[in-house]
Design goal:
Radius of gyration: 15 Å
Order of helices and strands: HEEEEEH
Strand order of the largest sheet: 1-2-3
Amino acid sequence: MANKNMERAKRLERELVNEARKHGLCAERARGSDGRALGKCKEVDVLIQGMRLQAKMRKKLAAFLRLDDGVDGVVFRQDRGPTLVLLRWNDLLDKLKDGW
């Protein structure tokens, strides 16, 4: 029996690529979820318009990552770490389509 977590991750990667293509974007999934298959670092799972993305599927996300109504994104940072931004997937696809 295949690893259920691995299958969920692959399903997410395929969904991301398919949705991006529906938006008219260039999208590709790394074979085996290994970015080296695309000539990138091993952590890259998908390429969308040249943007290297890692896909993570979790049963539940931390509450602070929730995007409330009226909020376009969440900005967060671990102490002494880089600042990160959380956006809705379709909002990112729209931005990329518009040449962001």
